Amino acid sequence: MVVLASTPAVDNIPLLRSPDPGDYFAGMPVVDLSSPGAPKAIAHACERFGFFKLVNHGVPLDTMERLESEAVRFFSQSQAEKDRSGPAYPFGYGSKRIGLNGDMGWLEYLLLAVDSASLSGACPVPTCPVFRAALNEYIAAVRKVAVRVMEAMAEALGIAPLDALSAMVTAEGSDQVFRVNHYPPCHALQGLGCSATGFGEHTDPQLVSLLRSNGTSGLQIALQDGRWVSVPSDRDALFVNVGDSLQVLTNGRFKSVKHRVVANSLKSRVSLIYFGGPPLAQRIAPLPQLLGRGELGEQQSAYKDFTWSEYKKAAYKSRLGDNRLAQFLK
Ligand SMILES: C=C1C[C@]23C[C@@]1(O)CC[C@H]2[C@@]12CC[C@H](O)[C@@](C)(C(=O)O1)[C@H]2[C@@H]3C(=O)O
Ligand SMILES: O=C(O)CCC(=O)C(=O)O
Ligand SMILES: [Fe+2]
């Protein structure tokens, strides 16, 4: 991390070395969801990187762009107007502060609760019916993709029934979250060789996260050797992250990917992320079919037994960059 005398606008925001053009993720796995080879390709990508780009996923570009433009409209309101949709916790509008434990990023966002298929009725934000309709249309479509992806994972892993993983996020009471992030351009750092941290490094606690962004890059993932690489943006694609819970359910075979966002000094980035989590009471432990076939061929789970509720509680007490699974290792 670069330490610079801060300009007032980026006070308290950690800075990162600006990405080099050569840092692009050359070997990024691209999976065509409509192809018969998708299950194998997904499993391979999740084992190597915990991350892949998904094309031919079936979410219409229209649906993604309608939501993006509603989000842009929301974020272009005055600060006072946006603050009326806050605070972010448990759900609502937030700016710069991420979580409750002191993490800061160069972004503003909406954190939203998702019911079985769409925005939770109990989540009053956003109030604008056109924005809500666009959110609901997108969420319904992206959830279907999440289900297909998790079924493909089960197929490739030889897990029966095929919905063993996807049922956790479609079950009544599943804990799904939706997030709309807006990273404004950070003009103050233009040409200084460093960039503002948009969203600091972390892993996602849930099973899977499906991300769509506008044409501004910024997302980076950490490879297994610790090197950070930039993910080129693609507004037609979805990017899939393995989360901590899926790492445990697969007995360490799929890797929860460390990722972060670097803010751009010229262009704003808008990202839409669906986080598929299970019901609070769901036990998170390696699926029986995968015991004995883990990364080290171990018969026993490497993790203590825990529920999603216990993991989530611990996660929300942690800092963004903490290794949250460490305290659940046996
Ligand atoms: C610092 C934090 C923000 C976060 C909750 C946490 O305490 C640790 C996990 C963070 C994360 C990362 C993925 C998602 O963006 C998120 C909504 C989640 O479920 O876990 C965020 C949390 C957040 O922003 O509240
Ligand atoms: O906004 C992005 O592109 C990624 C943000 C992220 O990783 C998150 O919200 O968990
Ligand atoms: Fe994330």
Automatic annotation (TrEMBL):
It comes from the Eukaryota. This is Uncharacterized protein. The lineage of its organism: Eukaryota, Viridiplantae, Streptophyta, Embryophyta, Tracheophyta.
